[in-house]
Amino acid sequence: MDKRAFIKNLGVMGAGLSGGFTSLREAVAAVEHVSPADLATDEDFWLKVRGDYEIKPDYINLENGYYCFLPQQTLEHLIDHMRMANREGSYYMRTVQFENKNRVANAVAEIVGCSSEEVAITRNTTESLDLIIGGLDWQPGDEAVMAEQDYGAMLNHFKLVERRYGTVNRLVSVPNHPSSDEELVELYAAAITDKTRLLMICHMINITGQVLPVRKIVDMAHARGVEVMVDGAHAYSHVPFKMSDLNCDYYGTSLHKWLSAPLGSGMLYVKKEKIDRVWPLLAERDLGTNDMRRLNHIGTHPVHTDLAILNAIQYQNTLGLERKAARLQHLQHFWTSQLRGLANVIINTPAELHRHGGIGNVGIEGLEPAELAERLMNEHRIYTAAINRPGVRGVRVTPNVYTTKGELNALVSAIKTLSA
């Protein structure tokens, strides 16, 4: 085999996309005629999907928000990629590593309908968005707007920039049950001044699951000359959307969340005309100021993680994002609708379907969030995440495609018992 053919073969081995999805394809083929909304209630179909996951029997896992672990097919591909990288060593790293990384960027970009020239593969949402927060050319007195309910890592980086450059951070508090999109738009609009440079918003708030009207907020901010950065950690591969729907300037997400890619995989989107405004965290060779790769130099990292992103995308494409999104939303509505309005029970997530996906948050009057999470685990073997933040006191409940209604009924029963 000549060198060119050998390198091409390496690329194919590196991608490792050819097998392992037969059972899922067959299950999906049998329901092609069923709408995502109707399929969302088909427990037999979702039990077949559940069969793709290795699930611990010790407890009911309702904390998929930190990390959505891999279906077995993706896991096996990840292990194969690790073996390949170990076998090929430096030869792979110096030949097709970057060609395959470009393939990953193309596939990740395709999901949200943007150019791969606007995408960098990162390690998580924190890295993605902190690259923007730390990479803008801040001047003393510049202002940024964000919410108390935003993710702590980004809030902390804004505080660092404030101390370092003399900027001003303006905080708003997002209501858990907004009366309208306009209420949310006006909330952010009221915090903008003539010194505001950047507005950060969540696409889906990580502690409540509330989906914000991103495009309306973006349009308002742009009309005032303010750039918008979107935290999409929990929206990418959870709710279907295209970047053109949002029109934001910057967007970051974690692929190891709802895409179910390996731990340590993320994505940063920067609108093409904004790339040259951002300073990289780590210097890259001179690629030109409009080259997205200049923002993504982190040195040597696990290439098998990159490669398995392609397998995670193939799994999702086989299942269908619309089907997945409908199921997640259905599961959230299934358990929250049984608890809304009950004495001592507080649902911290909007009821309207367009304002939530699969994440929900529930609290109980008189119980600290940590105590509620502890009692759910110790007394009912249900694992959740305690949330104690401004305006949000409860536990975050994040089912996944493998979650059954029986498991959610167990949650409902436990909350009723603990709130009595």
Structure description:
The protein is of the alpha/beta class. The protein has 2 domains: 97-313, Aspartate Aminotransferase, domain 2, CATH 3.40.640.10; 322-419, Aspartate Aminotransferase, domain 1, CATH 3.90.1150. The protein has 16 helices and 13 strands. The strands form 3 sheets. It has a 7-stranded mixed beta sheet, with helices on both faces. A 4-stranded antiparallel beta sheet has the order 9-10-13-12. It has a two-stranded parallel ribbon with strand order 1-11. β5 (196-202), α11 and β6 (227-231) form a beta-alpha-beta unit. α8 (125-135) packs parallel to α9 (152-165). The termini are far apart. 45% of the residues are buried. Residues 10-16 have low confidence and may be disordered.
Question: What keyword list fits this structure?
Answer:
420 residues; alpha/beta; Aspartate Aminotransferase, domain 2; Aspartate Aminotransferase, domain 1; 4-stranded antiparallel β-sheet; 16 helices; 14% strand
